[in-house]
């Protein structure tokens, strides 16, 4: 009986992976992307995900993207801050270039991530991040150098939110760095 279910499980897994890969292939990437031009401070204007409960407004611990850095060899660092009651910690997540321009991969404890620089004029940026661990989480973020929503960029971003059936999530910006202990 267990042997009979084996091929069905493999087929279901294969179809699931094929569906996940198809969704990733649907994500566009900025033509001629230049990672060095996205270095620096960014503010999150909009955030959406495929899970409505991804970020709770009541959660006292906040995670926010602060800035983006590049390294020799093409790696990209995302500088994040965790902040909450009595907690302030800087975290760097490094992703590595793939064979496709504007796409990066990395790993974290228990999973992997794929980052696509979807669209940018280097003052505004639409970023797609896919986390894979026990489940797949798709994040879409609208970033800007200043806290000013450009209607053109907001419209582009909202098209992706609609196309991929995403849920808006609360946005947090944190002025870093953390004070010394």
From TrEMBL:
InterPro entries membership: Calycin (IPR012674), Lipocalin (IPR002345), Lipocalin_CS (IPR022272), Lipocln_cytosolic_FA-bd_dom (IPR000566)
Coiled coil: none
GO cellular component: extracellular space
Keywords of the record: Signal
A molecular function (GO) term: small molecule binding
Pfam families (alphabetical): Lipocalin (PF00061)
Signal peptide: 1-20
Xref: Gene3D superfamilies: 2.40.128.20
Domain named Lipocalin/cytosolic fatty-acid binding: residues: 40-150
Family: Belongs to the calycin superfamily. Lipocalin family.
Protein name, entry field: Lipocalin/cytosolic fatty-acid binding domain-containing protein
Species annotation: Gorilla gorilla gorilla (Western lowland gorilla)
Lineage: Eukaryota, Metazoa, Chordata, Craniata, Vertebrata
